[in-house]
Amino acid sequence: xxxxxxxxxxxxxxxxxxxxxxxxxxxxxxxxxxxxxxxxxxxxxxxxxxxxxxxxxxxxxxxxxxxxxxxxxxxxxxxxxxxxxxxxxxxxxxxxxxxxxxxxxxxxxxxxxxxxxxxxxxxxxxxxxxxxxxxxxxxxxxxxxxxxxxxxxxxxxxxxxxxxxxxxxxxxxxxxxxxx
Length: 180
What we know:
Alpha-Beta Plaits, four-stranded antiparallel beta sheet, 4 helices, 40% strand, flat
């Protein structure tokens, strides 16, 4: 099996997931990993799909584009490598990071820069602005992995210092394994 990454995005409307997965099924594809969300009325979807040998990504992309263009979706299909070059997942530990506070430019950059400096790999990230004006709260939730040599105590200390500087609350804790 060859694996491809499929990305689709556009204005949200009913039937998009069915249209995409119907084309994938018609080409013999099997969904492995998927993530879908709606952001301010716009649909975004990422999939890892196992495709039969010989199924060209460009042919799949053309088929998908023809099917979903009437829905206003843009679709991109790219072949995936064999996974070499990825961090050794066997020795990595999973953590959850949460950040809450007043919204301002630079929060995501500063927190992700700190995580990168500690060798963290961000495997999932969601942000939302909640509440109503003037009491808006910026919420950022990460799932990360850290290598065996990571100094979690140092990361926690630096995260506390940075969160104070940014005027937010930030916490890191071991990831709950029963969450998808």
